[in-house]
Design brief:
By secondary structure, this protein is of the alpha+beta class. It has 19 helices and seven strands. A five-stranded mixed sheet has the order 3-4-7-5-6. The chain has a two-stranded antiparallel sheet with strand order 1-2. Strand 3 and strand 4 form a beta hairpin. The radius of gyration is 21 Å and the shape is globular. The chain starts with a helix and ends with a helix.
Length: 337
């Protein structure tokens, strides 16, 4: 995301309001929290108001500090409801099938979770919703990750028996506070290298008892209107990531990607810089994804995996993988046997 996008009001006021409610239950006066976060109380009197990601991040940091509750991300996500999500929530439950509901949730997720990119795909006999962070969360990363996946659960649990039929994958180690929330979440697996909600593909065809074509159309229209107001069209970075694919052991270079986008390499660099990234960072993101898949799903040697994702020396691949995941490729493979 660009600096302008980080400062643009994009977080619906319902989410800060929920945070105020949760912190009050932990004994923190809302005026104290808002003062610490430099947010005016008056903004909460406007039902359609929004604050920026940076402002919301400041609020969360102060809430964590004042409550001394490291598990606030889980708490926040699990307390979200259809009414908190507004048209986004109503759009999910009014779709004809679970498949349609999941597609709707992925399509418009950035309206409610603007720091994340949510994608949906199938793999073997599984349906997978994957969350990829769009901003460097820094000290808020654990909170943001807990909040995102717990919110994803509450977003789809009205249409999908996710606690019984699903599983959450986290790329981080298990937090010390996780046992407090274990019974309120689907089964969770940690240090998986990705952040996903996974469930049986057979569930996708199930019809929804809450389906309503009129409500679905109304919700879609309102969500499209919000996207238009945000100036939010197809993500430029997504286009680049879609082009960076491994073909015969090689990834395209910057110039090749620029040609496919019909821009000069200089223009491509400028666009990536505006989005706070560069070509090497995007290439590493794709390499990480491919390395995780090969380590988890194949028996290829580290030398072969290193070669397939563009490293001439296995030692360079091992160092890169440790940087991406905070563990060695062998440790990762051992965990996922």
């Amino acid at each position: 995301m660009t600096p302008e996008e980080l400062n643009k009001p994009s977080v619906p006021i319902g989410y800060p309001m929920l945070m105020l409610q949760i912190t009050e239950e932990h004994g923190i006066d809302r005026n104290t929290l808002l003062s610490k976060a430099s947010l005016p109380l008056t903004i909460f009197s406007q039902p359609d108001a929004k604050i920026s990601i940076l402002e919301y991040g400041r609020l969360c940091i102060k809430a964590l500090e004042l409550t001394d509750q490291a598990g606030l991300g889980y708490e926040f996500g699990l307390r979200n409801t259809m009414t908190t999500h507004g048209y986004y929530g109503f759009g999910i439950v009014s779709q004809p099938t679970i498949h349609d509901a999941i597609l709707f949730a992925a399509r418009y997720a950035r309206l409610r979770m603007p720091g994340w990119k949510l994608s949906f795909y199938t793999e073997n006999n599984l349906a997978i919703m994957e969350a990829v962070e769009l901003v460097p969360f820094g000290i808020l990363r654990q909170y943001a990750l807990d909040m995102m996946l717990a919110t994803l659960v509450t977003s789809v649990e009205r249409v999908l028996p996710i606690r019984e039929k699903g599983e959450l994958w986290f790329d981080c180690p298990e937090p010390k506070y996780y046992p407090q929330y274990r019974d309120r979440l689907p089964p969770c697996r940690f240090q998986m290298g990705v952040n996903q909600l996974r469930f049986d593909i057979d569930l996708l065809s199930m019809p929804l008892t809450t389906a309503n074509a009129t409500t679905a159309k109304l919700a879609e229209r309102e969500c499209e209107r919000e996207l238009a107001l945000q100036g939010d069209t197809e993500d430029f970075i997504d286009k680049i990531l879609g082009i960076i694919r491994n073909v015969h052991g090689e990834y395209p270079d910057l110039e090749s990607v620029a040609r496919q986008l019909n821009v000069s390499s200089r223009t491509l660099k400028r666009h990536m810089s505006r989005h706070g990234t560069n070509y090497q960072s995007l290439l590493d993101k794709v390499r990480k994804r491919d390395a995780i898949y090969l380590l988890r799903e194949t028996q290829l040697s580290l030398e072969e995996i290193a070669y397939r994702i563009g490293y001439t020396a296995p030692s360079n691949f091992i160092r890169a993988f440790q940087k991406w995941t905070r563990m060695s490729p062998n440790e990762f493979r051992e965990i996922h046997r």
